[in-house]
Give the backbone structure.
Amino acid sequence: MPCTKMDGIHLFYLSVISACLIVLSYLFIDRQTVWFLAAHHSRHLPGLKLCANTITDILKKLIVLYYIYYFLKKFSRKVGNLDKKLVLTCNAVAIGQFLKEFLKYVFGRCWPETWVCHNPSLLNGHAYGFHWFTSGSTYASFPSGHATFIFSFAASMWFLFPKLRWLWALLAALVTIGQVGMYYHFVSDVMAGALLGTLVGVGIACHKDGTA
């Protein structure tokens, strides 16, 4: 499906609206959501962990395998149109992951929960906020890598394989619900990852002459 100038306008408005929602979430939603979910032990809900991690874990393995398959076909000069579309999606995911690592360093945000080495978190010491240009896994909550991953995948597939848009939207929704429900990330972390992934995915899928 062709990507039009209107899609670019929609992405611009999406970015502006998302940025405003991220700020509002940081101020009024993030802490309250984590406190509520932790108090109600949402991590015990069946299926949430599957949604949060397993979907992206499977896709990661498939992408690695596909890169190997693609380069073997490239070497034998048997690359078809389907192969080119799929490698665009793989590239979108890879670029999205590279960018989110840089942004994690820029923002240096504390996690909702303590994971490793007694890292400061909202639920352990009420640590909340950004530590600008701070490297390391201790301050790496913003943006969500899982949200960036699934939205760069889903957004590129949305344009490259439009007949299955319901599936791409479903996968993105499931990972989003899982990450928030398990309070691995704040709501604004997931929103920022979703925005980053969408911009990368659409940009890669529509990079050639405005068409997918």
